[in-house]
Design a protein that fits this description.
88 residues, alpha+beta, four-stranded antiparallel β-sheet, 2 helices, 4 strands, globular
Length: 88
Amino acid sequence: MIETDASREGFVEKQIIGKVLAIGKARIVISEPCARCTFTALAQGDLAFEPAVLQTIARHGEGGFGALCQIIEPGKIRLGDQVTLNEA
């Protein structure tokens, strides 16, 4: 999970397809949108299944949620590392 700037709205991951994230020493290209997986339809630990999650994904995310990535430069990533967004 990456906290984004409050000025970005919607599903940010769809806005950054083709861009490169620099996190710690790693460089990761956001390669394509991820289709909704069944994971969002399952109860999680103490959290019950919540149909509103799927409805929100369908309504605002065009059925998708998240993005697939490719590592272009491996490196150690630590909690709290700054994330920068660059052109590919």
